[in-house]
Amino acid sequence: MGIYDFILAGGGAAGLSLALRLAQAFPDRKILILDREPKRTNDRTWCFWSVHPSPYPTATFRTWDRLAFYGLNFSKTYVLSPYCYYLIRGIDFYRHAYDRLSSFPNVRFEYGEVDRIQEDQEHASVSLNGMAFEGKWVFSSLYDPKKITKQPRRYHYLKQHFRGWEIETSTRCFDPQMPTLFDFRIPQDGQMRFMYILPFSEREAMVEYTLFSPELLTDEEYDSALQNYIADTLKIKEFRIKAVENGVIPMSDQPLPRKLGERILAVGTLGGRVKPSSGYAFLRIQKDSEAIVRSLLQQGHPFDLPDSPSRYHLFDSIMLQVMQRHGGEMHHIFTQLFRNNPIQRVFAFLDENQSFPEDLKILASLPPLPFIRALLRLKVLRRV
User: Structure pTM?
Assistant: First the structure.
């Protein structure tokens, strides 16, 4: 088998995105992708906004140029230009990645359980079902929340958890050009809770119930909330459930190390690519994959990676503190955010990609008291 140039431990969004770019940039290098099993089901959906075309146009399931927001006493539809909102289904991305990577003779897949990742002075190695594979560089996306050493007195740990029903109605109920990013017209019960609608046609849509909280709900609680929302708010009486989607995204401001060894780099969720205060990760993973390849080409190693401006780390921590202690107030805060700002400014803020004066406009549009309290508490926590 010899020595691989690149080994990717984990073949999800982060591993496959990086593998695609490595194969393109280094067509003569040996690449090994290790995963538990081939991905053959539509196990997740990724959405993101961007001013650029989708990085995977043939795998993009839907594109929208408008969005709707619903609060308790405010609603608005937004024209997104120059942004678009994209949806990529897991199965479409996996098929695209497998088809593309199979065209490179230097790319190999192996399946099983990764037992261990270690390194010596010259190589790193990954053990799969007891068999060791050596590589010059290893990229791991094997995130296991049980192995994260938490520091609850210094950092915040919430979960973004959701359950979605893909439904088909008996009559025309949806505008296929108008997804709903937030609908807060549901009981909050002391936590940030909202509904999210991705319409595929006039009679088909994904309706998703999303919460930010430390603990998960039972399936019955998710299903009850979805049923009540569809019947009472959307006024839909007849529909059938075509598919069910579940997910849990870690929401924490605890720094996760990128460099796990002299030849090992963490990517994806393990590498902190999930935005702590929003849970969006797909586009951040794409940008990170590009930065890794650029570092390899220019520096000869994968570790020369950009970081977000420090103020955004602080903003994330403050927002998580407010969510954790005052989750029931988040619908008021988000209503102010969307009432007082153009959607383009909100997107740029969440992308950590705008000037400090524009950031100040976002902050000035929000109710100050919860954030001042959060900042003061954060200063106390970080001194402990």
Answer: 0.94
